[in-house]
């Protein structure tokens, strides 16, 4: 893919686009929420559908000329229903946060009670952080992971639900390395007559491939984003029982959004089609195997992992035991200089700040996309530790960067 037309018309933007393409090829994308979509998804996302207004849903639009838009959106819906086994799917949310907003708008009134996992324990802003619309609109209380094990404390969550009597319980996280006991949440929600929302934003692809347990059919609502492990380009989705379909659809449009981003929905359709291929299951298994190999090797080097390991696509390192004077931000910045891009992250029981926290989060979805296996991920762990042990040593940074260059040449992306 070239940016020839943009280059002729707008060199400043073309330089940034080519620079980003080079950056993605030349560095290891280990931000757990990122991935590399296929050239076909990129093409669909940059199609002429960006020009089309199509408020409404397939065959029920408020504008003319929506025939091709209908085809694309219906393909995305049908493929999503098949991938996740859902009764009803809305593919219009612009992101995972907008998907959560759609569920809240559909089922809650302002002031209603949400019970969700605290952000620094792995939750998400849209689950009710005070800085987010959800925290400002609803009455939010939060459950936690067990400080000893790093796993969700299901018993405490259930007791909290009984005391707080929430209208909705939110499960599913952004920085949680373990599988989730959806039935425990179902039982807690049933005990207090609450809805259950499962936010599988990070693990959409793992759930679709059957390498992470599925909340579909257990939770009332399942939300996700489409650009993470599922590799279908930027956006969100909502899945629900048929009985909630009209409420959810009305909450997304006209309730919370205007016209759908049909070009993004085209990307979703293409990406979901790719994920229906049996090869996607191998990819998803490789993501999980890679994360396990990465985590085990980091632990062999003496780093502490929250929960002692991973069942998913990510590991969460708590630096406080092994490197008490090094912050997550220090490591994030030094690693970026060495060509490894991940993010500083809060850890349960955080003693620093959200901006300069005590942990790092590292994911394997993008590495598996470019072909990395467990051995390659063990080597990446060795490289990470080199930098963590020597954050200010420019010689070490440069040597790691050289090795990253060799690895990215070996496993090229977007050639
Ligand atoms: N920003 C995403 C993440 O990194 O987990 C969640 O929205």
Count helical runs.
16
Bound molecules: D-serine
**Strand segment count:** 15
Strand order of the largest sheet: 4-10-9-8-7-5-6
Low-confidence runs: none
Determine the structural class based on helices, strands and strand pairing.
alpha/beta
Largest sheet: 7 strands, mixed
Shape: globular
Gap from first CA to last CA: 8 Å
Question: Rounded to an integer, what's the Rg over CA atoms?
Answer: 21 Å
Helix content: 40-55%
Percent strand: 5-15%
Mean pLDDT: 97
Oligomer: single chain
Tell me what you see in this structure.
This protein has 415 residues and is an alpha/beta fold. 45% of the residues lie in helices and 13% in strands. It has helices at 4-9, 11-26, 39-45, 67-84, 96-107, 133-137, 154-164, 182-191, 204-209, 245-256, 262-275, 279-300, 328-337, 365-369, 374-389, 394-410; strands spanning 28-29, 56-57, 60-61, 88-90, 113-117, 139-143, 168-171, 195-199, 221-225, 236-240, 304-305, 314-318, 340-341, 343-345, 359-363. The strands form 4 sheets. The chain has a 7-stranded mixed sheet with strand order 4-10-9-8-7-5-6, with helices on both faces. The longest helix is centred in the last third of the chain and has 22 residues, at 279-300. The radius of gyration is 21 Å and the shape is globular. D-serine binds at residues 33, 96, 124, 174.
């Amino acid at each position: 893919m070239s940016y020839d037309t943009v280059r002729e018309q707008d060199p400043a933007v073309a330089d940034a686009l080519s620079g980003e393409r080079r950056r993605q090829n030349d560095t290891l994308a280990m931000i757990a929420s990122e991935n590399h979509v296929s050239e076909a998804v990129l093409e669909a996302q940059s199609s002429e559908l960006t020009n089309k207004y199509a408020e409404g849903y397939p065959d029920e639009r408020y504008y003319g000329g929506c025939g091709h838009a209908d085809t694309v959106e219906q393909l995305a819906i049908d493929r999503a229903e098949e991938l996740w086994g859902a009764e009803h799917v809305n593919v219009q949310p612009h992101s995972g946060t907008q998907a959560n907003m759609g569920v809240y708008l559909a089922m809650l009134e302002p002031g209603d009670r949400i019970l969700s996992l605290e952000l620094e324990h792995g939750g998400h802003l849209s689950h009710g952080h005070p800085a987010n619309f959800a925290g400002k609109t609803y009455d939010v209380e939060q459950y936690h992971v067990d400080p000893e094990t790093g796993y969700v404390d299901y018993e405490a969550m259930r007791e909290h639900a009984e005391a707080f009597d929430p209208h909705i319980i939110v499960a599913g996280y952004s920085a949680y390395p373990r599988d989730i006991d959806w039935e425990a949440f179902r039982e807690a929600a049933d005990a207090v007559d609450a809805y259950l929302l499962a936010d599988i934003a990070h693990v959409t692809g793992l759930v679709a491939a059957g390498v992470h347990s599925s909340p579909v059919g257990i939770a009332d609502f399942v939300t996700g984003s489409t650009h993470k492990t599922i590799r279908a380009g930027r956006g969100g989705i909502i899945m629900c029982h048929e009985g909630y379909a009209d409420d959810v659809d009305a909450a997304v449009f006209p309730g919370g959004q205007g016209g759908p981003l049909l070009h993004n929905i085209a990307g979703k359709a293409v990406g979901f089609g790719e994920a229906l291929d049996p090869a996607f299951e191998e990819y998803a298994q490789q993501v999980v195997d890679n994360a396990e190999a990465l985590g085990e090797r980091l632990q062999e080097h003496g780093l502490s992992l929250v929960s002692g390991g991973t069942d998913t696509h990510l590991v969460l390192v708590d630096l406080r035991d092994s490197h008490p004077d090094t912050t997550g931000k220090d490591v994030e910045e030094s690693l970026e200089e060495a060509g490894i891009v991940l993010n500083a992250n809060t850890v349960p029981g955080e003693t620093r700040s959200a901006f300069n926290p005590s942990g790092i989060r590292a994911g394997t979805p993008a590495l598996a996309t470019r072909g990395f296996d467990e051995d390659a991920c063990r080597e990446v762990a060795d490289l990470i530790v080199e930098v963590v042990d020597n954050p200010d040593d420019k010689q070490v940074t440069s040597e790691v960067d050289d090795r990253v260059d060799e690895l990215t040449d070996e496993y090229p992306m977007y050639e």
